[in-house]
Amino acid sequence: MSGTARRVGAIMLRHFFLWRGSWTRLFDLVYWPVLQVMIWGFMTEFLAGKSSWVAQAGGVFIGAVLLWDVLVRGQFGMTLSMLEEMWSRNLANLFVSPLRPWEFAVALMSLSILRSLIGVVPAALLAIPLFGYSVFGLGLPLLAFWSLLLVFGWAIGLALCGLLLRFGLAAESYAWASVFLLAPFSGVYYPVATLPGWLQPLAWCLPTTHVFEGMRAAMVDGAFRWELMLGALALDLACIAAGFAIFLGAVASARRRGSLLSTGE
Amino acid sequence: MLIQSMDDARSSPAIEVSGLRKAFARTTAVDGIDFVLPRGAVLGLLGGNGAGKTTTIGMLLGLVLPTAGRIRVMGEDMVRHRHRVLPRMNFSSPYVDFPARLTVRENLRVFAALYGVRDAGDRIAALASDLHLRRFLDQRAGSLSAGQKTRMALAKALVNDPELLLLDEPTASLDPDTGDWIRAYLEAYRRRTGAAILLASHNMAEVERLCDEVLMMREGRIVDRGTPAALRARFGRESMEQVFLDVARAGRGADAAGAAP
To answer: ipTM of this predicted complex?
Structure first.
């Protein structure tokens, strides 16, 4: 095993040990996605009788809530793993070990894949018997939607980890709340055309907007819109590059300011 | 050429510092210090609170970037190539903690993996035996007493059999018996492995017992240096505690004189 794989594995092992010894953390991962699916599932059943669009596009809200949660869990997966190190005042131990900052970032990304799977898959499975809707019915496009949202979640997560390194636990509330700021502009539950005209160009700057429009096209029209996926991919690549730059810049800044020894206190 | 430079790196001192300086926005924490720690030696960093000891250790570990000066650890430039030597060194500090919900064994397994320790299970078992941690291996780190935590921190610091050990107040908040035991263990480790140790401490008995040479720091500068015996003789004192007080009070006297109208 290469040195990098071993060190990334070590950080993942540290969180595996944590999850193994703390069922409340595991429960917390599953709790919100399941709750959201139930609320939107029952809402869909209610609205289906009132709206022909909802009746025709059955499951569009459940699909949206599940995919939105991929983004949220992807970002939380990174920032929560970072916060765990800060809460336990363990960052200095990690940064004086042979672990490189980019390896630490890769470990956080890998953990966020696991967190999103643990959080979203049970909720997706629950929707099948409860509401007769399977998001897995989307087939291969689901993999594209999932990956594109996860990568955007990493980009936001990396930037927020940089913020945590810069401002310490004083920035903790941003780690929890920031991603939700994007929801109204991403067209998660409604088409982008619903937004005021002046806001729509800004909304199209978000990869999430492309993904959710693509999801609706797949579910309502049965069409896979490549141009939307390519747009999301291009924006994702720009965002992940910016996220890495912010995170690595924050590590360098923390070394200049000498704050790594006291981060978390 | 490469072989020659590798030989140089092997024969170079454990730490070589010249003109080291660290300035923050409003203060200069370390102000142009020079010192050498030979392989196999123990060097003490002494000074009151705010003297610059922790910042110096932070720079030696690569956690803090110097404003000026040069640090070479085992022949490698610590600013540019810290990852070449980090696997061969380790550190312990009471200001850094461990994941409380992980057991002692789990914590040590994670750090053994980070440092690339082969046969990690055997190494952890040996350390647990040496440091009297066997009974606590499957206990959560958060439930350990201060003495047990210090021994666990030392086990982490020794997990990779480091050639250079940086210890910031290794016996702080320990009862005299545990403190004495830790000091004896460090002496034995140094004898057995030939490791170099840099020790920052407020415990003068510890410094006298362990250190070959001592650097007295005040306001970011090295104000005196020598073996504990030489320093005692130079200050005409019987203990390092008295030497420490003389140096600290001389600083305060200088401050008062500077502030006088």
So the answer is: 0.87
